[in-house]
Amino acid sequence: MVSGKNLGHRLLVTLIDQYAVTEPASVWGVIPSDERDLSKGFEDITYGNFANSINLAANWLQDHLPPQNPAAKLKKKLLLPSPFASTSAQAHLIEASQCRVYLHGGPPSTDILEVLSANSTIRFMQIPPLSDLLWQSTASEFPYNMTWNHAKDHPWLIFHTSGTTGIPKLVTYTHSMTSSFDAAELMPDASEETMNRHFEHRRWYTPLPSLHFVGMTVSLQFPVFLRSVVVIGPVTPGPTQPHVAKGVLEHSKAQGALLPPALIDGLCEDAEGVQCLRNLDYVYFAGAPLTRRLAEKLIGYVAVKPAMGSTEAGAYFIRTIDQDDWQYYSFRPGMGMELQHAADNMYEAVFVRNPQVERWQQVFEVYPDIHEFRTKDLFARHPTKPDLWKYVGRTDDMVPFSHGENLYVADIEAEMTSSHPAISAVQVGGQGRPKPFLLVEWKDHLAPHGKDKETAVAHLLEQANQKCSDLVKLTPDLVLFMGSDKPLVRTVKGTISRRESEKLYDEEIDRLYHR
Protein backbone atom coordinates (compact mmCIF):
# COMPACT_ATOMS: atom_id res chain seq x y z
CA MET A 1 0.00 0.00 0.00
CA VAL A 2 1.22 3.52 -0.80
CA SER A 3 2.37 5.41 2.27
CA GLY A 4 3.26 9.02 2.91
CA LYS A 5 1.92 12.28 4.22
CA ASN A 6 -1.28 13.85 2.94
CA LEU A 7 -2.50 10.86 0.89
CA GLY A 8 -5.37 11.95 -1.32
CA HIS A 9 -4.40 15.61 -0.92
CA ARG A 10 -1.24 15.74 -3.04
CA LEU A 11 -0.80 17.64 -6.29
CA LEU A 12 0.83 15.97 -9.29
CA VAL A 13 2.69 19.14 -10.21
CA THR A 14 4.28 19.73 -6.80
CA LEU A 15 5.16 16.04 -6.33
CA ILE A 16 7.11 16.02 -9.62
CA ASP A 17 9.10 19.03 -8.40
CA GLN A 18 9.60 17.36 -5.02
CA TYR A 19 10.98 14.16 -6.56
CA ALA A 20 13.27 16.22 -8.79
CA VAL A 21 14.88 17.67 -5.65
CA THR A 22 14.86 14.68 -3.29
CA GLU A 23 15.50 11.85 -5.79
CA PRO A 24 16.42 13.38 -9.17
CA ALA A 25 17.82 10.09 -10.53
CA SER A 26 14.56 8.16 -9.96
CA VAL A 27 12.98 7.12 -13.25
CA TRP A 28 9.64 8.59 -14.31
CA GLY A 29 9.44 6.91 -17.72
CA VAL A 30 11.31 5.42 -20.65
CA ILE A 31 11.23 6.35 -24.35
CA PRO A 32 12.72 4.61 -27.42
CA SER A 33 16.39 5.33 -28.07
CA ASP A 34 15.51 5.18 -31.78
CA GLU A 35 11.84 5.26 -32.81
CA ARG A 36 12.70 3.56 -36.11
CA ASP A 37 14.54 0.68 -34.43
CA LEU A 38 13.08 -0.37 -31.08
CA SER A 39 15.70 -3.12 -30.72
CA LYS A 40 18.14 -0.38 -29.67
CA GLY A 41 16.30 -0.22 -26.38
CA PHE A 42 14.76 2.54 -24.29
CA GLU A 43 16.23 5.57 -22.50
CA ASP A 44 15.38 6.61 -18.96
CA ILE A 45 13.72 9.94 -18.27
CA THR A 46 14.45 10.75 -14.64
CA TYR A 47 12.41 13.07 -12.47
CA GLY A 48 15.29 15.53 -12.81
CA ASN A 49 14.89 15.41 -16.62
CA PHE A 50 11.10 15.50 -16.40
CA ALA A 51 10.88 18.51 -14.07
CA ASN A 52 13.48 20.37 -16.12
CA SER A 53 11.54 19.77 -19.36
CA ILE A 54 8.35 21.01 -17.68
CA ASN A 55 10.16 24.19 -16.59
CA LEU A 56 11.54 24.67 -20.12
CA ALA A 57 8.04 24.31 -21.58
CA ALA A 58 6.49 26.62 -18.97
CA ASN A 59 9.10 29.32 -19.59
CA TRP A 60 8.69 29.01 -23.37
CA LEU A 61 4.92 29.26 -23.09
CA GLN A 62 5.11 32.28 -20.82
CA ASP A 63 7.40 33.99 -23.33
CA HIS A 64 5.19 33.20 -26.34
CA LEU A 65 1.57 33.15 -25.17
CA PRO A 66 -0.38 36.40 -25.24
CA PRO A 67 -0.46 37.72 -21.66
CA GLN A 68 -4.23 38.15 -21.68
CA ASN A 69 -4.84 34.63 -23.00
CA PRO A 70 -6.59 32.42 -20.41
CA ALA A 71 -0.41 23.70 -18.45
CA ALA A 72 -0.63 23.78 -14.89
CA LYS A 73 2.30 25.93 -13.81
CA LEU A 74 0.96 28.82 -15.90
CA LYS A 75 -2.53 28.28 -14.45
CA LYS A 76 -3.87 27.82 -17.96
CA LYS A 77 -6.14 25.06 -19.28
CA LEU A 78 -4.86 22.60 -21.87
CA LEU A 79 -7.29 21.09 -24.38
CA LEU A 80 -6.22 17.68 -25.70
CA PRO A 81 -8.17 17.04 -28.95
CA SER A 82 -7.91 13.63 -30.54
CA PRO A 83 -6.43 13.65 -34.06
CA PHE A 84 -8.61 10.58 -34.71
CA ALA A 85 -11.77 12.68 -34.34
CA SER A 86 -13.19 14.18 -37.54
CA THR A 87 -12.07 17.69 -38.43
CA SER A 88 -15.61 18.96 -37.77
CA ALA A 89 -15.56 17.36 -34.30
CA GLN A 90 -12.16 18.92 -33.54
CA ALA A 91 -13.39 22.33 -34.70
CA HIS A 92 -16.42 21.94 -32.42
CA LEU A 93 -14.19 21.10 -29.43
CA ILE A 94 -11.98 24.14 -30.04
CA GLU A 95 -14.98 26.44 -30.33
CA ALA A 96 -16.79 24.97 -27.31
CA SER A 97 -13.70 25.23 -25.09
CA GLN A 98 -12.97 28.80 -26.23
CA CYS A 99 -9.46 27.72 -27.17
CA ARG A 100 -7.36 30.63 -28.40
CA VAL A 101 -3.94 29.08 -29.16
CA TYR A 102 -3.24 25.83 -31.07
CA LEU A 103 0.11 24.28 -30.11
CA HIS A 104 1.68 21.73 -32.46
CA GLY A 105 5.09 20.08 -32.74
CA GLY A 106 5.57 20.90 -36.41
CA PRO A 107 4.12 22.88 -39.32
CA PRO A 108 0.31 22.68 -39.61
CA SER A 109 -0.99 19.75 -41.67
CA THR A 110 -3.89 20.03 -44.12
CA ASP A 111 -6.27 18.64 -41.49
CA ILE A 112 -5.09 21.15 -38.88
CA LEU A 113 -5.54 24.03 -41.32
CA GLU A 114 -9.07 22.81 -41.99
CA VAL A 115 -9.80 22.69 -38.25
CA LEU A 116 -8.36 26.17 -37.70
CA SER A 117 -10.23 27.67 -40.65
CA ALA A 118 -13.49 27.20 -38.74
CA ASN A 119 -12.34 29.61 -36.01
CA SER A 120 -10.99 33.04 -36.92
CA THR A 121 -9.83 33.88 -33.38
CA ILE A 122 -7.42 30.98 -32.85
CA ARG A 123 -3.67 31.37 -33.29
CA PHE A 124 -1.31 28.58 -34.42
CA MET A 125 2.05 28.19 -32.66
CA GLN A 126 4.77 25.65 -33.43
CA ILE A 127 6.39 24.43 -30.21
CA PRO A 128 10.05 23.35 -29.79
CA PRO A 129 10.92 19.73 -30.61
CA LEU A 130 10.48 17.24 -27.78
CA SER A 131 14.20 16.43 -27.88
CA ASP A 132 15.00 20.08 -27.09
CA LEU A 133 12.65 20.06 -24.11
CA LEU A 134 13.99 16.76 -22.75
CA TRP A 135 17.73 17.10 -23.24
CA GLN A 136 18.44 20.85 -23.48
CA SER A 137 20.41 22.82 -20.89
CA THR A 138 19.05 23.40 -17.41
CA ALA A 139 15.94 25.56 -17.33
CA SER A 140 15.20 28.42 -14.99
CA GLU A 141 12.99 27.17 -12.19
CA PHE A 142 9.33 27.91 -12.76
CA PRO A 143 7.84 27.48 -9.28
CA TYR A 144 4.32 26.29 -8.58
CA ASN A 145 3.54 27.32 -5.03
CA MET A 146 -0.14 26.43 -4.81
CA THR A 147 -1.36 24.31 -1.89
CA TRP A 148 -3.90 21.50 -2.22
CA ASN A 149 -6.74 23.60 -0.82
CA HIS A 150 -5.99 26.45 -3.20
CA ALA A 151 -5.44 24.36 -6.34
CA LYS A 152 -7.65 21.27 -6.03
CA ASP A 153 -10.63 22.83 -7.81
CA HIS A 154 -8.62 24.71 -10.44
CA PRO A 155 -9.20 23.46 -14.01
CA TRP A 156 -6.14 22.00 -15.71
CA LEU A 157 -6.74 19.48 -18.52
CA ILE A 158 -9.66 19.38 -20.94
CA PHE A 159 -10.38 15.90 -22.26
CA HIS A 160 -13.33 14.89 -24.39
CA THR A 161 -15.52 11.84 -24.71
CA SER A 162 -14.88 9.45 -27.59
CA GLY A 163 -17.95 10.51 -29.54
CA THR A 164 -18.79 6.89 -30.35
CA THR A 165 -22.45 7.73 -30.89
CA GLY A 166 -22.38 11.50 -31.41
CA ILE A 167 -20.39 14.73 -31.13
CA PRO A 168 -17.71 14.41 -28.41
CA LYS A 169 -18.33 16.29 -25.17
CA LEU A 170 -15.75 18.33 -23.27
CA VAL A 171 -14.78 17.19 -19.77
CA THR A 172 -12.55 19.52 -17.74
CA TYR A 173 -10.28 17.87 -15.17
CA THR A 174 -9.28 19.74 -12.02
CA HIS A 175 -6.13 19.00 -10.02
CA SER A 176 -8.29 16.98 -7.63
CA MET A 177 -9.55 14.78 -10.48
CA THR A 178 -5.99 14.06 -11.59
CA SER A 179 -5.20 12.65 -8.14
CA SER A 180 -7.93 10.00 -8.06
CA PHE A 181 -5.50 7.08 -7.67
CA ASP A 182 -3.93 8.82 -4.67
CA ALA A 183 -7.38 9.35 -3.16
CA ALA A 184 -8.24 5.67 -3.73
CA GLU A 185 -5.59 4.81 -1.11
CA LEU A 186 -8.00 6.27 1.46
CA MET A 187 -10.97 4.06 0.53
CA PRO A 188 -12.22 1.94 3.47
CA ASP A 189 -11.05 -1.27 1.76
CA ALA A 190 -7.64 0.08 0.68
CA SER A 191 -5.80 -2.54 2.75
CA GLU A 192 -7.24 -5.31 0.54
CA GLU A 193 -5.67 -6.36 -2.76
CA THR A 194 -6.87 -3.92 -5.39
CA MET A 195 -5.73 -2.97 -8.86
CA ASN A 196 -3.49 -0.24 -7.37
CA ARG A 197 -1.28 -3.01 -5.98
CA HIS A 198 -0.79 -4.31 -9.52
CA PHE A 199 0.08 -0.89 -10.90
CA GLU A 200 2.59 0.25 -8.26
CA HIS A 201 6.37 -0.19 -8.63
CA ARG A 202 6.15 -1.80 -12.10
CA ARG A 203 6.86 -0.74 -15.68
CA TRP A 204 3.54 -0.12 -17.43
CA TYR A 205 2.82 0.35 -21.11
CA THR A 206 -0.33 1.58 -22.80
CA PRO A 207 -0.64 2.59 -26.45
CA LEU A 208 -3.43 5.00 -25.54
CA PRO A 209 -2.04 8.55 -25.82
CA SER A 210 -2.14 11.09 -23.02
CA LEU A 211 -4.93 12.97 -24.79
CA HIS A 212 -7.11 10.11 -23.49
CA PHE A 213 -7.76 9.96 -19.75
CA VAL A 214 -6.36 6.39 -19.63
CA GLY A 215 -3.12 7.54 -21.25
CA MET A 216 -2.92 10.46 -18.82
CA THR A 217 -3.51 8.12 -15.89
CA VAL A 218 -0.75 5.70 -16.91
CA SER A 219 1.74 8.46 -17.75
CA LEU A 220 1.09 10.73 -14.76
CA GLN A 221 -0.90 9.12 -11.95
CA PHE A 222 0.76 5.67 -12.06
CA PRO A 223 4.35 7.01 -11.79
CA VAL A 224 3.79 9.98 -9.49
CA PHE A 225 1.39 8.41 -6.99
CA LEU A 226 2.09 4.67 -7.34
CA ARG A 227 5.78 4.98 -8.25
CA SER A 228 5.54 2.91 -11.40
CA VAL A 229 7.55 3.68 -14.55
CA VAL A 230 5.65 4.58 -17.72
CA VAL A 231 6.76 3.00 -20.99
CA ILE A 232 6.18 5.41 -23.89
CA GLY A 233 6.12 3.92 -27.37
CA PRO A 234 7.04 5.60 -30.66
CA VAL A 235 4.87 8.22 -32.32
CA THR A 236 2.49 6.62 -34.84
CA PRO A 237 0.21 8.24 -37.45
CA GLY A 238 -2.84 6.34 -36.16
CA PRO A 239 -3.72 3.77 -33.49
CA THR A 240 -0.70 1.65 -32.51
CA GLN A 241 -0.32 -1.40 -34.73
CA PRO A 242 0.51 -4.88 -33.36
CA HIS A 243 4.07 -4.95 -34.75
CA VAL A 244 4.83 -1.67 -32.97
CA ALA A 245 3.34 -2.83 -29.66
CA LYS A 246 5.28 -6.08 -29.98
CA GLY A 247 8.53 -4.14 -30.40
CA VAL A 248 7.76 -2.02 -27.35
CA LEU A 249 6.95 -5.03 -25.17
CA GLU A 250 10.04 -6.93 -26.36
CA HIS A 251 12.57 -4.18 -25.74
CA SER A 252 11.24 -1.92 -22.95
CA LYS A 253 11.29 -4.40 -20.03
CA ALA A 254 7.59 -3.69 -19.51
CA GLN A 255 5.97 -5.68 -16.69
CA GLY A 256 2.36 -4.72 -17.32
CA ALA A 257 0.26 -3.48 -20.23
CA LEU A 258 -3.14 -1.83 -20.43
CA LEU A 259 -4.40 -2.54 -23.94
CA PRO A 260 -7.56 -2.33 -26.04
CA PRO A 261 -8.81 -5.82 -27.01
CA ALA A 262 -8.36 -5.06 -30.72
CA LEU A 263 -4.61 -4.71 -30.14
CA ILE A 264 -4.49 -7.87 -28.01
CA ASP A 265 -6.19 -9.64 -30.92
CA GLY A 266 -3.55 -8.36 -33.32
CA LEU A 267 -0.71 -9.42 -31.03
CA CYS A 268 -2.20 -12.90 -30.67
CA GLU A 269 -2.09 -13.53 -34.43
CA ASP A 270 1.44 -14.91 -34.18
CA ALA A 271 3.47 -16.82 -31.61
CA GLU A 272 5.90 -13.95 -30.97
CA GLY A 273 3.09 -11.56 -30.10
CA VAL A 274 1.48 -14.09 -27.77
CA GLN A 275 4.82 -14.64 -26.04
CA CYS A 276 5.29 -10.88 -25.54
CA LEU A 277 2.03 -10.80 -23.61
CA ARG A 278 2.78 -13.98 -21.68
CA ASN A 279 6.08 -12.49 -20.49
CA LEU A 280 4.24 -9.74 -18.60
CA ASP A 281 3.03 -9.86 -14.99
CA TYR A 282 -0.34 -8.34 -15.90
CA VAL A 283 -2.43 -7.72 -19.00
CA TYR A 284 -5.32 -5.36 -18.36
CA PHE A 285 -7.87 -4.89 -21.15
CA ALA A 286 -10.04 -1.79 -21.49
CA GLY A 287 -12.41 -0.14 -23.94
CA ALA A 288 -14.33 -3.28 -24.94
CA PRO A 289 -14.81 -6.90 -23.81
CA LEU A 290 -12.04 -9.43 -24.42
CA THR A 291 -13.12 -12.62 -26.19
CA ARG A 292 -12.67 -15.97 -24.46
CA ARG A 293 -10.61 -17.18 -27.44
CA LEU A 294 -7.97 -14.53 -26.73
CA ALA A 295 -8.08 -14.88 -22.96
CA GLU A 296 -7.46 -18.62 -23.18
CA LYS A 297 -4.19 -17.97 -25.04
CA LEU A 298 -2.91 -15.96 -22.07
CA ILE A 299 -4.45 -17.32 -18.85
CA GLY A 300 -2.03 -19.57 -17.02
CA TYR A 301 0.94 -17.50 -18.20
CA VAL A 302 -0.05 -13.94 -17.25
CA ALA A 303 -2.76 -12.43 -15.03
CA VAL A 304 -5.57 -11.17 -17.29
CA LYS A 305 -7.71 -8.44 -15.71
CA PRO A 306 -10.45 -6.03 -16.82
CA ALA A 307 -10.11 -2.27 -16.40
CA MET A 308 -12.85 0.25 -16.93
CA GLY A 309 -13.74 3.90 -16.65
CA SER A 310 -15.11 6.88 -18.50
CA THR A 311 -13.88 10.36 -19.22
CA GLU A 312 -16.55 11.85 -16.94
CA ALA A 313 -16.31 9.38 -14.05
CA GLY A 314 -12.61 8.53 -14.28
CA ALA A 315 -11.32 5.08 -13.40
CA TYR A 316 -13.73 2.51 -11.98
CA PHE A 317 -11.92 1.22 -8.90
CA ILE A 318 -12.30 -2.53 -8.64
CA ARG A 319 -11.27 -5.37 -6.36
CA THR A 320 -9.06 -8.12 -7.68
CA ILE A 321 -10.77 -11.49 -8.00
CA ASP A 322 -9.96 -15.08 -8.96
CA GLN A 323 -8.44 -15.57 -12.40
CA ASP A 324 -11.32 -17.92 -13.28
CA ASP A 325 -13.58 -14.84 -13.24
CA TRP A 326 -11.27 -12.79 -15.48
CA GLN A 327 -14.13 -11.15 -17.37
CA TYR A 328 -16.03 -10.00 -14.25
CA TYR A 329 -15.81 -6.78 -12.24
CA SER A 330 -16.16 -6.38 -8.48
CA PHE A 331 -16.75 -2.69 -7.81
CA ARG A 332 -15.41 -1.18 -4.61
CA PRO A 333 -18.11 0.29 -2.30
CA GLY A 334 -16.31 3.62 -2.12
CA MET A 335 -17.36 4.40 -5.68
CA GLY A 336 -21.02 4.74 -4.72
CA MET A 337 -22.09 2.77 -7.79
CA GLU A 338 -25.42 0.96 -8.06
CA LEU A 339 -26.33 -1.67 -10.66
CA GLN A 340 -29.92 -0.84 -11.63
CA HIS A 341 -32.10 -3.19 -13.67
CA ALA A 342 -32.35 -2.11 -17.31
CA ALA A 343 -33.79 -4.98 -19.40
CA ASP A 344 -33.92 -8.78 -19.24
CA ASN A 345 -30.80 -9.82 -17.30
CA MET A 346 -28.96 -6.54 -17.93
CA TYR A 347 -28.19 -3.88 -15.32
CA GLU A 348 -26.93 -0.34 -15.86
CA ALA A 349 -24.11 1.03 -13.71
CA VAL A 350 -25.33 4.24 -12.05
CA PHE A 351 -23.32 6.56 -9.80
CA VAL A 352 -25.54 7.83 -6.98
CA ARG A 353 -24.33 10.90 -5.10
CA ASN A 354 -23.36 10.05 -1.53
CA PRO A 355 -21.68 12.59 0.79
CA GLN A 356 -19.87 9.76 2.60
CA VAL A 357 -17.95 8.73 -0.54
CA GLU A 358 -18.00 11.94 -2.59
CA ARG A 359 -14.18 12.20 -2.62
CA TRP A 360 -14.17 9.16 -4.93
CA GLN A 361 -17.11 10.27 -7.10
CA GLN A 362 -15.41 12.59 -9.57
CA VAL A 363 -18.40 12.54 -11.91
CA PHE A 364 -20.18 14.93 -9.55
CA GLU A 365 -17.30 17.38 -9.91
CA VAL A 366 -18.00 17.30 -13.65
CA TYR A 367 -21.78 17.55 -13.16
CA PRO A 368 -22.29 19.26 -9.77
CA ASP A 369 -26.04 19.76 -10.21
CA ILE A 370 -27.12 16.13 -10.69
CA HIS A 371 -27.94 13.48 -8.07
CA GLU A 372 -27.14 10.43 -10.18
CA PHE A 373 -25.12 9.71 -13.31
CA ARG A 374 -26.23 6.95 -15.65
CA THR A 375 -23.10 5.53 -17.28
CA LYS A 376 -24.94 3.67 -20.09
CA ASP A 377 -22.66 0.70 -19.30
CA LEU A 378 -24.62 -2.56 -19.07
CA PHE A 379 -23.64 -5.59 -16.99
CA ALA A 380 -24.92 -9.10 -16.33
CA ARG A 381 -24.70 -10.62 -12.84
CA HIS A 382 -22.51 -13.68 -12.27
CA PRO A 383 -24.74 -16.81 -12.04
CA THR A 384 -23.45 -17.80 -8.57
CA LYS A 385 -21.46 -14.80 -7.25
CA PRO A 386 -23.86 -11.86 -6.84
CA ASP A 387 -21.13 -9.23 -6.35
CA LEU A 388 -19.47 -9.98 -9.70
CA TRP A 389 -20.60 -8.30 -12.90
CA LYS A 390 -19.77 -9.00 -16.54
CA TYR A 391 -19.74 -6.12 -19.00
CA VAL A 392 -22.13 -6.78 -21.89
CA GLY A 393 -22.33 -3.46 -23.74
CA ARG A 394 -23.93 -0.03 -23.77
CA THR A 395 -27.46 1.24 -23.76
CA ASP A 396 -26.37 2.93 -27.03
CA ASP A 397 -26.06 -0.57 -28.51
CA MET A 398 -29.86 -0.91 -28.64
CA VAL A 399 -31.05 -0.18 -32.21
CA PRO A 400 -34.74 0.86 -32.59
CA PHE A 401 -36.47 0.03 -35.91
CA SER A 402 -39.34 1.71 -37.73
CA HIS A 403 -41.86 -0.95 -36.64
CA GLY A 404 -41.12 -0.47 -32.93
CA GLU A 405 -38.94 -3.56 -32.37
CA ASN A 406 -35.45 -3.12 -30.89
CA LEU A 407 -32.28 -5.16 -31.36
CA TYR A 408 -29.39 -5.28 -28.90
CA VAL A 409 -26.44 -5.48 -31.27
CA ALA A 410 -23.35 -5.63 -29.02
CA ASP A 411 -23.58 -9.39 -28.45
CA ILE A 412 -24.14 -10.05 -32.17
CA GLU A 413 -21.14 -7.91 -33.14
CA ALA A 414 -18.85 -9.50 -30.56
CA GLU A 415 -19.86 -13.04 -31.55
CA MET A 416 -19.38 -12.38 -35.27
CA THR A 417 -15.96 -10.79 -34.76
CA SER A 418 -14.72 -13.63 -32.57
CA SER A 419 -16.23 -16.40 -34.74
CA HIS A 420 -14.23 -15.71 -37.89
CA PRO A 421 -10.44 -15.12 -37.81
CA ALA A 422 -10.51 -13.00 -40.98
CA ILE A 423 -13.02 -10.46 -39.64
CA SER A 424 -11.51 -7.32 -38.14
CA ALA A 425 -14.79 -5.68 -37.07
CA VAL A 426 -18.50 -5.56 -37.79
CA GLN A 427 -21.23 -3.02 -37.16
CA VAL A 428 -24.97 -3.66 -37.07
CA GLY A 429 -27.26 -0.68 -37.56
CA GLY A 430 -30.54 0.41 -39.06
CA GLN A 431 -32.08 2.90 -36.65
CA GLY A 432 -35.47 4.01 -37.97
CA ARG A 433 -35.37 1.51 -40.85
CA PRO A 434 -37.45 -1.68 -41.25
CA LYS A 435 -34.52 -4.13 -41.03
CA PRO A 436 -30.90 -4.13 -39.80
CA PHE A 437 -27.86 -3.74 -42.01
CA LEU A 438 -24.43 -5.28 -41.43
CA LEU A 439 -21.04 -3.69 -42.17
CA VAL A 440 -18.12 -6.16 -42.34
CA GLU A 441 -14.45 -5.17 -42.24
CA TRP A 442 -11.85 -7.81 -43.10
CA LYS A 443 -8.24 -8.19 -42.01
CA ASP A 444 -6.26 -7.37 -45.16
CA HIS A 445 -3.97 -10.40 -45.16
CA LEU A 446 -6.75 -12.88 -44.31
CA ALA A 447 -9.70 -11.53 -46.28
CA PRO A 448 -11.49 -14.12 -48.46
CA HIS A 449 -12.18 -13.32 -52.11
CA GLY A 450 -15.34 -13.05 -54.20
CA LYS A 451 -18.11 -15.47 -53.28
CA ASP A 452 -16.06 -16.80 -50.34
CA LYS A 453 -16.90 -13.60 -48.45
CA GLU A 454 -20.63 -14.17 -48.91
CA THR A 455 -20.31 -17.82 -47.91
CA ALA A 456 -18.41 -16.91 -44.74
CA VAL A 457 -20.93 -14.26 -43.74
CA ALA A 458 -23.95 -16.47 -44.54
CA HIS A 459 -22.93 -18.83 -41.73
CA LEU A 460 -22.52 -15.92 -39.32
CA LEU A 461 -25.95 -14.54 -40.25
CA GLU A 462 -27.49 -17.93 -39.60
CA GLN A 463 -25.93 -18.08 -36.13
CA ALA A 464 -26.94 -14.51 -35.25
CA ASN A 465 -30.52 -14.95 -36.43
CA GLN A 466 -31.10 -17.77 -33.96
CA LYS A 467 -31.30 -15.06 -31.29
CA CYS A 468 -33.38 -12.58 -33.33
CA SER A 469 -37.11 -12.25 -33.79
CA ASP A 470 -38.41 -12.42 -37.37
CA LEU A 471 -38.77 -8.64 -37.57
CA VAL A 472 -35.10 -7.95 -36.90
CA LYS A 473 -33.31 -10.86 -38.60
CA LEU A 474 -30.17 -10.05 -40.60
CA THR A 475 -30.35 -10.75 -44.34
CA PRO A 476 -27.63 -11.17 -47.03
CA ASP A 477 -29.04 -8.34 -49.16
CA LEU A 478 -28.28 -5.83 -46.40
CA VAL A 479 -24.60 -6.72 -45.95
CA LEU A 480 -21.85 -4.32 -47.01
CA PHE A 481 -18.16 -5.26 -47.17
CA MET A 482 -15.58 -2.59 -46.29
CA GLY A 483 -12.65 -1.91 -48.60
CA SER A 484 -9.17 -1.54 -47.11
CA ASP A 485 -9.12 2.02 -48.47
CA LYS A 486 -12.18 2.96 -46.42
CA PRO A 487 -12.17 1.16 -43.04
CA LEU A 488 -14.66 1.66 -40.24
CA VAL A 489 -13.91 4.73 -38.14
CA ARG A 490 -12.19 4.07 -34.80
CA THR A 491 -12.13 6.05 -31.59
CA VAL A 492 -8.86 6.65 -29.77
CA LYS A 493 -9.61 3.48 -27.75
CA GLY A 494 -9.70 1.42 -30.95
CA THR A 495 -13.44 0.79 -30.73
CA ILE A 496 -15.80 1.47 -33.63
CA SER A 497 -17.36 4.93 -33.76
CA ARG A 498 -20.93 4.04 -34.74
CA ARG A 499 -22.02 7.49 -35.76
CA GLU A 500 -18.94 8.35 -37.81
CA SER A 501 -18.80 4.91 -39.49
CA GLU A 502 -22.45 5.03 -40.48
CA LYS A 503 -21.97 8.58 -41.76
CA LEU A 504 -18.94 7.45 -43.81
CA TYR A 505 -21.01 4.75 -45.56
CA ASP A 506 -24.30 6.64 -45.61
CA GLU A 507 -24.73 6.53 -49.41
CA GLU A 508 -23.80 2.85 -49.73
CA ILE A 509 -26.16 1.90 -46.89
CA ASP A 510 -28.96 3.87 -48.51
CA ARG A 511 -28.44 1.99 -51.78
CA LEU A 512 -28.77 -1.35 -49.96
CA TYR A 513 -32.31 -0.45 -48.94
CA HIS A 514 -33.34 0.86 -52.36
CA ARG A 515 -31.93 -1.64 -54.81
UniProtKB/TrEMBL annotation:
InterPro entries found in the cross-reference section: Adenylate-forming_Reductase, AMP-bd_C_sf, AMP-binding_CS, AMP-dep_synth/lig_dom, ANL_N_sf
Superkingdom to which the source organism belongs: Eukaryota
Pfam families with a match to the protein in the record: AMP-binding (PF00501), AMP-binding_C_3 (PF23562)
Coiled-coil regions listed in the entry: none
Presence of keyword Phosphoprotein: yes
Protein name: AMP-binding enzyme
Domain AMP-dependent synthetase/ligase: start-end pairs: 89-327
Keywords: Phosphopantetheine, Phosphoprotein
Keyword presence, Phosphoprotein: yes
